[in-house]
From TrEMBL:
PANTHER family: 3-HYDROXYISOBUTYRATE DEHYDROGENASE-LIKE 1, MITOCHONDRIAL-RELATED (PTHR43060). This is 2-hydroxy-3-oxopropionate reductase. One of its GO terms (biological process) is glyoxylate metabolic process. The lineage of its organism: Bacteria, Bacillati, Actinomycetota, Actinomycetes, Kitasatosporales. The keyword Chloroplast does not apply.
Length: 298
């Protein structure tokens, strides 16, 4: 293993974090990880990483700290306080937060970290579990150019499209826009699926030809089998997309941008969650359309 690569601490080993950290290990990085679930720590160790017993232990001698947790409160919980990252990381370390959180949380974190001599990038991702496993994520980054340049080789091991979008918080703003587009796209696909099925059309054939034309999309490519097989095993949970739709609608209100369709889809996501489907993949928006259409819901 190359000794010139920075030492990495990875906090958060969920659906996305586990395969992403393993891709860094495959790329030759030394990765020490911490998460709350022992089985996830065991998985990291089996892949060649080192399991830490605390955040402090994980980040103590790290050059780069990567965080991948569900939402703003989780980022604040691991970053602040005596047991958090800012109190235990060394001055000069680079903190790359890949969680999807509010832009303001990222701005506040960067400011607090600067006082400790810690550099910060917000670097949320798009591509879901499959993109994480295949290391083809799209990574939208906010922060300083020099810090982005320093992090770029590491990010290259995780994704395919990696872009600095502006100052702190910009990555999160672009991610919010991404989640708006994805949710509206899934909803449109779900409505088309129910329309096609009620019309008696061969659904697989229809989706194949639609995906070859202007209606085609990465969303349809990735979610086509979910629709066809009614397989809603979570790659990205409705619960998390509900959180993200809250972020984008709130941020849009703050800047005076109207989201007429996005607002409706945000309510449909919230409704699906209220009906007990929050733990399912966001392609389960199909279930909401089926209920509204009087179709049987598997």
């Amino acid at each position: 293993m190359s000794t010139t690569l920075p030492k990495v601490a990875w906090i958060g080993l969920g659906i996305m974090g586990s395969p992403m950290s393993e891709n860094l290990i495959k790329a030759g990085y030394s990765v020490t990880g911490f998460t709350l679930e022992q089985d996830k720590l065991d998985r990291l160790a089996a892949a060649g990483g080192t399991a830490a017993r605390s955040i402090a232990e994980a980040v103590g001698d790290a050059d780069v700290i990567v965080t991948m947790v569900p939402a703003s409160p989780h980022v604040e919980a691991i970053a602040y306080g005596p047991d958090g990252i800012l109190e235990n990381a060394r001055s000069g370390a680079l903190l790359v937060d890949m969680s999807s959180i509010t832009p303001q949380t990222s701005v506040d974190l960067a400011k607090a970290a600067k006082d400790k001599g810690i550099r910060v990038l917000d670097a949320p991702v798009s591509g879901g579990e499959a993109g994480a496993v295949e290391a083809v994520l799209s990574i939208m980054v906010g922060g300083e150019q020099a810090d982005f340049d320093a992090a770029k080789p590491l990010l290259d091991a995780l994704g395919r499209t990696i872009v600095l979008c502006g100052p702190h918080g910009s990555g999160q703003t672009v991610k919010a826009a991404n989640q708006l587009i994805v949710a509206v796209n899934i909803q449109a696909c779900a409505e088309a699926v129910v329309f096609l099925e009620k019309s008696g059309v061969d659904l697989k054939a229809a989706l194949d030809v639609l995906n070859g034309g202007l209606a085609g999309s990465t969303v349809l490519t990735r979610k086509k089998d979910n629709f066809l097989n009614r397989d809603f095993k979570p790659g990205f949970r409705i619960d998390l997309h509900h959180k993200d739709m809250g972020i984008v609608t709130d941020a849009a209100r703050n800047v005076g941008a109207a989201l007429p369709v996005g607002g409706v889809v945000a309510q449909l996501v919230a409704s699906l969650r209220a009906q007990g489907d929050g733990g399912l993949d966001h392609s389960a928006l199909l279930r909401s359309v089926e209920r509204l259409s009087g179709s049987p819901v598997a």
